[in-house]
Amino acid sequence: MQSKENHNHQTGFGIYIVVWLALLALTSITVTIAGISLGKYTLFIALLIAAIKSALVINIFMHIKFEEKIFKVFLALSGFTLLVIFILTFVDFIYR
Amino acid sequence: MANDIAAKSFYQQSTNKHTGILAWLLTTDHKRIGLMYLVSILTFFLVGVIIGVLMRLELLSPGRTIMDAQTYNSFFTLHGVIMIFLFIIPGLPAIFGNFFLPIQIGARDVAFPRLNLLSYYIYVIGAILALVSLFLPGGPIDTGWTFYIPYSIRSTTNISLTLFAAFILGFSSILTGINFVTTTHRLRAPGMTFFKMPLFVWATYATAWIQIIATPVVGITIVLVILERAFGVGIFDPALGGDPILFQHMFWIYSHPAVYIMILPAMGVVSEIIPTFARRTIFGYKQIAMSSLAIAFIGYLVWAHHMFTSGMSDTARWIFSLLTFIVALPSGVKIFNWVATMYKGSIDPQTPFLWVMNFIFLFSIGGLTGLVLGSLATDIHVTDTYFVVAHFHYVMFGGTGTIFFGALHYWFPKMFGKMYNKKLANIAVALFFVGFNMLYFPKFIMGYMGMPRRYYDYLPQFTPYQEISTYGSWILAGTIFFIVGYLIHALVKGKKATSNPWGGVTLEWHISSPPPMENFHEIPTITHEPYDFSQLGLPALGRGDEE
Amino acid sequence: MSNHHDTAIHHVHRDDVGAKMGMWLFLFTEVLLFGGMFLVYAVYRYQYPDQFHYAAMELNTTVGTLNTIILLTSSLTVALAITALQKGNKFLSMLMIFITLVFALMFMVNKYFEWSTKFSHGIYPGSKELLERPNGQILFFGLYYVMTGLHGLHVLVGMFMLSFMLYLIMKNKISSDNYVKLENSGLYWHLVDLIWIFLFPLFYLIQ
Question: Which of B347, B390, B469, B475 has the largest CB neighbor count within 10 A?
């Protein structure tokens, strides 16, 4: 029995290639920046670029942008929980 | 709807083409899988009980009584590992969640039936590995179930194999969680919106999320300890820079939410039993449903209250203490709503209801003593003493363990089509209460007096309390075996049960006892609230099997 | 979302959204698994910033970058494989999966050479050379081997899954109107890529 919500959204070849080029560009940016001394901002910028790359992979390659809303809710909740775990753990180590 | 005589039950009809034992071992029927879990889990529970009785026997008098110190260390470790990983974490979800979640939402099975069977076999493999580790050279693990570093890196006992067994068991838990979340979202009957689901379903759903998100963290912790022992990577070896407090963080990030895996399904069962035996709808349905989600989420934020004396920063300590007080609130909501449900209800004090009375008393004591532990100043005095041991036995055993029996007595007629001897059952409830409090209440006193936990020996001033506790263990263990006894007798010789012996209104009471293989001849369309007693098209007080 | 066909036979219903949901839930467990590892990394890097810096200089940034490009491209090809199949182009889909597998193999070969080079320099867990170094460096390499090792294991699992998908497509068990298994395998593969997206700067780009 077919489920009624037959997922028909097709992402064209073109969009995937554009996203891939963007990912390559971001990679070259992050490698180049690593060579420049940015002091205490280095880690933050590297993670920011990684986050942008992740957003592209998750939304387009993994298709979540086009899925039912519940998937995005799940992802947000899980990510938020992980973030909170990081923060609370660091509350210990930072304030020793 | 309840014309049972002609219809076949799921015992007689298999979902696969096999017959005999293979029809069970290769089944994908959630009901059969639930029953297989029941047999395995109950067996391991009884093993855990016996280990507990032997521990109490050792503690009957100071000094050596029946075993040496090394053996005692292994015993308390195994007692914890078996009770936690083989009984209480899988327990209610794997048995009653499997059996009743699909039925209560009007489905024919879970979303991934074959994955369900795999979950069961992974559980069995994990259990066997744990048992095997007892007998290999090196001897059984002796670190306590919490396997803190550095000792778990240094101990010469079979740490790696036991931990690997726990890792495998974690997979079983994760797969069950994935199955239940998907089932709840995708397989509800027409008309069953989220806010028309029974509260047991809400509880199982919230639990499933914890199983999914929290378990991997202990998974990686276990892997790191095994790798440390095998290759000396340094991550958990203080001599090489490893941080023991970081280990504790990683361990408790799972193990605290794990206790909510334990208690949430039990609270869900309580929310089922009370309306049925008060014969009125639950008070504050939405609040109870939301409180399950709140407990699941806030439960991730309190783990370091197990670490107040570990060496953490002061800032971390007061933040976690504050969060711990906050997590008590949604539990309080449930207790108040349950009591409010009983007010002006028409109470029918049958056996399941009596188990719930046990639960409310014992769990409340456990919960209130949790406040003593959650508050920093008092925790300093009682941490790692018998006070903690008493607290968690009251909440885990007095809470979830009690409801394990409560659920069994509530759903026994449905699962097996037979009724047990209610007189014996009610005696058991009372004996359980007496034995339980005799066993565990003295531990609060001993802890307050300074008796440390996991100690093989003790000072003479504790002897009278230790003795009472041991006698209590005999009454409690005896009662447990007594319960198993009369239930098995009921399976063989019990009176046939009707489809609705208690007068419940959730969907499982609309089908035959035991249910047919496909659960429903026709998938129902839901139009009313889950605990709507005014809609009862059934006999007023379904006691068709009364003697 | 249930069936209304009421037979006594236990029938298997098809629910693609449910299947995808199950896979996403499984991916969350992987995120938390590696998330726990990243937490350990974060704490130790916070405690030993300089030693991490020194140790990281011994990793080859070029190989790391190359591997990043390889994985990103393999994500592209697996995504293209799905679109190709949706459009009914079985050959192109299988070709794309095959290319993905080739990239995965290249990644593993690179990793093999990286690790064996380190081994030959005496840098591995428990080695005499490593144990003589400061704790921060021991931890860095401990984390390096565990995290890239665990990641590599997941690459292998992904390769196995994709090979199996190749077989299923060949046998027409996966087709243009029944491809959720391929989508799910793709999701797993993208996760493997995602983990590397974070591993790369954290191990190779600490300058």
Answer: B390
Residue B240 to chain C, least CA–CA distance (Å): 5
| Partner-chain residue, chosen from C79, C80, C201, that has the shortest CB–CB distance to A46 | C201
Q: What confidence tens digit (pLDDT) does each residue in B46-90 have?
A: 999 999 999 999 999 999 999 999 999 999 999 999 999 999 999
pLDDT given for residue C38 in this prediction: 98
| Mean pLDDT within A24-37 | 92
Residue B300 is nearest to which of A81, A93, A95, comparing CB atoms?
Answer: A81
Which chains border C (3 or more CB–CB pairs < 8 Å)?
A, B
Q: What is the pLDDT of residues B245-262, one digit of tens each?
A: 999 999 999 999 999 999
Contact B234 C139 (CB under 8 A): yes
Neighbours of chain B (3+ CB pairs under 8 A): A, C
Interface test with A, best of B181, B253, B254, B300 (most A CBs within 10 A): B300
Cross-chain residue pair A3–C76, CB shorter than 8 Å: no
Pinpoint the alpha helices (H) of B136-198.
151-154, 159-186
% of chain A with per-residue pLDDT over 70:
92
- Test C29 with B216 for CB contact under 8 angstroms: yes
> What pTM was computed for the model?
0.94
Residue C192's domain spans which residues? Answer: 2-204
Residue type, B414: K
Q: Among residues C70, C146, C152, C69, which one has the least CA distance to residue C111?
A: C152
d(CA B51, CA B131) in angstroms, rounded, equals: 13
Residue type, B467: E
Which tokens sit at B500? 């609705």
Which among C21, C29, C139 has the least Cβ separation from residue B185? C21
Contact call for C1 and A31, based on CB within 8 A: no
**Residue C145 maps to which CATH number?**
1.20.120.80
Count of domains forming chain C: 1
**CA distance to B205, C22, C60, C84, C161, per residue, from C165 (Å):** 32, 18, 34, 14, 6
**Interchain proximity B315–A88, CB inside 8 Å:** no
* Closest among A86, A84, A95 to B315, alpha carbons compared: A95
Over its C-alpha atoms, chain B yields an Rg (Å, rounded) of 23
Q: What is the pLDDT of residues B450-499, one digit of tens each?
A: 999 999 999 999 999 999 999 999 999 999 999 999 999 999 999 999 99
CB atoms within 10 A of CB B400: 27
